[in-house]
Amino acid sequence: MASRNQNRPPRSPFNKKASTEELAVEKRQRFGADKMERQGVAGRGRAPFSVVNTASAVSEGDGVECSTVEFTKEDVDALLNEKMKKGNPYDNKKKMEQMGDLIKRLKLCVRWFKRVEEGYVQEKEKLQSELESAVKKGIDTETEMKIKIEEFNETISDLRKTISSLEGRLLKEESEKLEAINCYRKEKEARTAAEKVGNEKSAELEKVRDEKSVAEKKATSNEDLYKRSQEYNMSLQQYNSRLQSDLEIANESHKRLETEKATIVESLSNVRGHNKALQDQLASLKVSQEEASKQKEVQAYELRCLREELKQMRDDRDWHQAHANALIGEFTKYKECTGKSFAQLDTLTIKTNALEETCSSQKEQINILQQQLIAEKEKLKVADLSASETRTVFEEQKRIIHELKDRLADKEFQVVEGEKLRKKLHNTILELKGNIRVFCRVRPSLPEDSTGTDMVISYPMSTEMDGRGIELVQNGQKYPFTFDKVFNHEASQPDVFTEISQLVQSALDGYKVCIFAYGQTGSGKTYTMMGRPEAPDLKGLIPRSLEQVFQTSQSLKDQGWKYKMQASILEIYNETIRDLLSSNRSSGIDQTRIENSVPSKQQYTIKHDAQGNTHVSDLTIVDVCSVNEISSLLQQAAQSRSVGRTQMNEQSSRSHFVFSLRISGINENTEQQVQGVLNLIDLAGSERLSRSGATGDRLRETQAINKSLSSLSDVIFALAKKEEHVPFRNSKLTYLLQPCLGGDSKTLMFVNISPDQSSVGESLCSLRFASRVNACEIGIPRRQTQTSTRSLDSRLSSG
Q1: According to DSSP H, which parts of 434-535 are helical?
Q2: What pLDDT shows up at residue 222?
Q3: Parallel, antiparallel, or unpaired: how do β-strands 561-573 and 622-624 relate?
Q4: pLDDT at 238
Q5: N or C, which terminus of the chain has less Cβ within 10 Å?
């Protein structure tokens, strides 16, 4: 059953073939225009102190028309806070004119406020009416949308009922069609059965005829049987007549079935046409349902837009109400201010009368004050003269102070430059002299030491020996020594490195530099060389030197220098060279036993070339580019170094630690090449067997250490005596240090001593050995530079 809205034409978006998107765009444009219009009204309402133009302003007393009046918030504040101009205090006429002018302006301001208030009230009423109309329009639109939605819902329900009824009719027609087909099939089966029965009866009739002929033949032969045959023939004829009547009945039923078949076929064609018509009607109903759903979506979208518009209108209404309340509050505030101004005007009138009364008395005082003013002016002139003189004196003193500061800065700069020149000349003198520089460092006292430093070691305070002399006391006798630099027990790691920083710089300049630490066990050699790398203030000479090398190489890039650096670390343990960077070496701290039974595949052989460079075969050489890589290598080497415990030290170094950094640099601008080497060596501690208490493996280690240090002493003595043969090959240590001791290298030895009373003998031996080393003369250090770039480029590319 079709509903009352089924034949209703669709809405305008579908009749005009306008899409949902176009309708939504139109809605948004209309909503945006309304919003901009409302914002324009709101914008006018948000400027309460904007310029207000009036056609004319008539004053209260004279009725004269004024020009356009403009007031702002600043003008009103200035008008309310306006003070009387200072002038002749006895000129009452002028004061009255000023007061009258102020009163006129206040009246104009009050009138302007009244007009503004009226405009605000009108605008508020207008906005209120617009808001009410907008709310009413929104409510009407919402009710209309609800009615439309209800109508659409009724239409959809009617369409659904019609579709369900059509579907029921279609099912009924289908069932009737199936029943007609079944009846036709049954009738066809009955007709085929009747035809089969007719065929059987015709066959029996022919058989009867044959029997009749046989009977007639027998009748001729037997008359007796003739009668019976006639009777039998009569019965057969009757039976034949019955069969013919049955046949006629079967033919009539067949004809009747044919007519029924024709009627069934005709009704089946009619049913098919009706079914097709129903399907077309169902398709049209589905199309109309889709259109109705689309129209419903459009209406829902319009409803959402209208709800958003209604919400915006409500927000604007709330804002306008809040704005109107704010304007009312401001108006009341300014009304109160106007009332205060009227009260002030009354008080001013009273004050004016009082001033007129006191005017006569003040005229007399004016003359007195004028005389006093003349006297004060004279005093002021005198004070100005004294102040100008004081100012000139101050400027002169300021100029003198500035000149003194400039002279002080110049002197400080000259002192710094002089110190640099002194170091440079001292370095040049040492290069020309060719002897090994020796620094002495006294470690701080430890809790387990038997006495303080003042009882064993002292430092001369004379000008010549300041910072260079040290005295050791043994059995009441003083033994003085002089070195290039002496660091007392209070010296910090940065203080020590400051003295050798220029020597480290020489490695980048192309010199061979060797720094090694010598001293007894527990005197602080490893602390001086390595320190504690994890603490920035306690880093030793090795990490600080490497940091300076990398920082300086980075700063020299701007001058065109490019450096390549290679590092290697080894130790000499029991006269055997061990590679501390080898990958197959087992690492461990407090290694007390070294397996010498396993033969090593590497043969670490020391070789010196003609240029004085030292090479160790099969030694691991690593290319380094940053301080972090060096730190990791030093950490790996420290874990692999042979250390042990003795009676003199818990962590005693049982081998000579040698760190080598080969520096190759090229200047791309000048094509100059430099090749420098920085050797940093931490020697094993020298000690007497009686104090160390070494046995077994420790005894063999101590003997090997003392033998190598003894060989070092023999080499130093031979160099000091300038003997022809210097026994460098007596130990691996001296043979490795041959270029540093007898070549053109800059060599520095740190002699470390302990302030302990029980170590005085060992300290005295160390100081005597260091003194002989300081007096030893070796070759003059020379800088290795080249101008051709082929050899270095090949080395850089190969590295």
Answers
A1: 493-508, 525-529
A2: 67
A3: antiparallel
A4: 81
A5: N
Distance CA 550, CA 624 (A): 10
Question: Tens digit of pLDDT for each residue in 510-524?
Answer: 888 889 899 988 888
Residues 410-436 pLDDT 10s = 887 887 677 567 556 655 655 655 557
Question: Distance between CA 768 and CA 563 in Å, rounded?
Answer: 40
Give the Cα separation of 524 and 517 in Å (integer): 9
Q: How far is CA 451 from the centre of its chain?
A: 58
Name the phi and psi angles at 470, rounded to 5.
-150, 145
Cβ contact 88:94 at 8 Å: yes
* Whether 708 contacts 730, CB under 8 Å: no
Angstrom distance (rounded) from CA 664 to CA 369? 93
**H/E segment holding residue 168:** helix 92-221
Residue in the block written with tokens 């042979």: 642
Q: Is pLDDT larger for residue 76 or for residue 458?
A: 458
Measured between alpha carbons, how far apart are the two ends of the chain, in Å?
98
Q: Per-residue pLDDT for 18 more than 60?
A: no
478 membership: H or E segment, kind and range = strand 477-482
CA distance 219 to 683: 163
pLDDT score, position 446 = 77
Q: Strand 485-487 vs strand 437-442: parallel, antiparallel, or unpaired?
A: parallel
Written as six digits, the tokens of 287 are 């199309």
The two structure tokens encoding residue 17: 């073939």
Phi and psi dihedrals of 658, rounded to 5?
A: -125, 115
Q: How far is CA 294 from the centre of its chain?
A: 49
Q: Summarize pLDDT for 358-404 with one digit per residue, the tens.
A: 877 777 888 888 888 888 888 888 888 888 888 888 888 889 999 99
Contact partners, residue 270, CB within 8 Å, separation at least 6: none
Cα distance between residue 103 and residue 97, in whole Å = 10
434-584+604-798 classified as CATH 3.40.850.10: yes
Which segments of 564-675 does DSSP mark as H helices, in order?
Answer: 627-640
Task: Evaluate whether 707 touches 731 at the Cβ level (below 8 Å).
Answer: yes
Residues in the chain: 799
C-alpha distances (whole Å) from 615 to each of 120, 605, 711, 735 are 100, 8, 21, 11
Summarize the chain as % helix, strand, coil (round to 5): 65, 15, 25
Query: What's the pLDDT tens digit per position in 586-638?
Result: 444 344 344 443 445 567 888 888 777 888 888 899 999 988 898 888 888 88
For 135-168, b/e burial (b = at least 16 CB within 10 A) is: eeebeebeeebeebeeebeebbebbeebeeebee
Q: Residue 473: beta bridge partners?
A: 478
Q: Using only C-alpha atoms, what is the Rg of the chain?
A: 64
The alpha carbon of 654 is separated from its chain's Cα centroid by a whole number of angstroms, namely 50
Whole-angstrom distance, CA of residue 31 vs CA of residue 313? 10
Across-strand partners of 681? 516, 658
Rounded mean pLDDT of 171-192?
Answer: 80
d(CA 381, CA 730): 99
Say which DSSP state 798 is in. H
Residue 486 pLDDT exceeds 90: yes
State both tokens at 302. 């319009």
Please give the Cα distance from 365 to 183 (Å, whole number): 145
Give per-residue burial for 627-641: e unless 16+ CB within 10 Å, then b: eebbeebbebbbebb
pLDDT at 494: 93
Tell me which range, 35-39, 168-172, 500-504, 649-653, is most confidently predicted by mean pLDDT: 500-504
